[in-house]
Amino acid sequence: MEYERFSAFVAPHTDAMACVAAALIGVADAEDAAQEALIRAWRAWPTLREEGAVRAWLLRITTNVCRNWQTGRYGSQRRATQSLDGSESQAALRRAGESGPGNGAHADALDLQHAIAELSDDLRWVVALRFYAGMDATEIGELLETPPATIRTRLRRALTLLRDALDPVVDGHTSAWASSVSAPSSAQSPVSKPGRTS
After folding, report:
1. Please, what are the domains in the chain?
2. pTM for this entry
C-alpha cells in the first residue's frame, strides 16, 4: 500500500531525476544514479513532511547521489573498467538525432561539452542544471542550497567563460550557437541540449 503511494508521487518526476543525473554525471551513469536516488528516496519516504515538495525532495536526493558519484563513492569501478572507444557517446549522439562524427553539429556539440567540462565545479553544475535539466535559478538554488542571485551570477560568469572558450567568430561569421548565447531569449535556451545544436 505504501509502495503504491510512493510510486504515485514519484512517477511524474523520474524523467526530471534522470535528466538532472545525466546533466551532472553524464548519460552513461545517469540511469544508475537515478535508480540509486530512487532507492534512497524509498528509504527516506517516511521522513518527507510535505508531499507537495516531492519534486524538490527527489531532485535534491538525485543531486546528492551525483555529488557522491563524482567523488568516487559510486561508479568508481565502472570508470576504472569502462572502454575508451567512445561507443556509448557515439550511440548517445545518434539517439539525439546527430549523424555522427564529421558533421559540423557533432563537432560543435563536442566543443561545447569540452568547454563545459573545463568550467569549475560550481559553474559547471549551474550550467548543467539550467540548460540540460531545464531548471530556473530558484530551483537550482534550492537544490544547491545557494541563493538564486548567486546562481544567476555564476550562470553569467559561466556563459562569459563559454563564449570566450568557444571563440564565436569563425571566418568573420558568428555561429548560430554564439548568437543565441549572446542574446538569450526567455523562450530559448542559450546553450543547446547535449547532442543538439541551435
Report:
1. 2-80 (1.10.1740.10), 118-182 (1.10.10.10)
2. 0.61
